[in-house]
Amino acid sequence: MKKILLVTLSILSILLLQVDVVLSQEIYTDIAGKKMSFFKKLERKNKGEVYQTDGDIIIPGGMAMPIMYRRAQKDMPDLIVNYVFTEKDSLMHTVEYEWDVQNQKAFVNKYNELLNLLTARYGASVSKGELADFLKVDGSKKLSKSDRWSTKENAEVELYAFRSKEYNPVYKIRLYVSPKRS
Length: 182
Known about the structure:
Helix content: 25-40%
């Protein structure tokens, strides 16, 4: 009986590690001291394609033109990754991951998947809002949910979900990674 329990626990541990590795490849939160060249290699590995937005781009002072990538996602809308880095030495300043998920159940599942990964990495978050509200049929009000972490790597990580209150509501999940502000 003990042997069966140990084998079962071992298999579960391996499966959880595989999920963490897949999600770790999808998002990268350790940006301190990393240059844009590192993230270009990461995007090639993840089959990211350079992506051009048709919207306006605001470039903070001292920053180069941001570079965006689009990654195809299985059973999800594509992931858009936006990299903001310094003009002088190409050091990463901010990384933003964005999923535009119209299916409410998939939206909640993706948020929970990311929340579980980040909680496992960084511990409990500072949380605002209720994810369960997104499953309610009434799309007439604007909703938001956020979770924040300060990492030992001197980064701020914010997982943020929102639903607009338009005629056809927009559901988005964003994950921001930036240096810890003093």
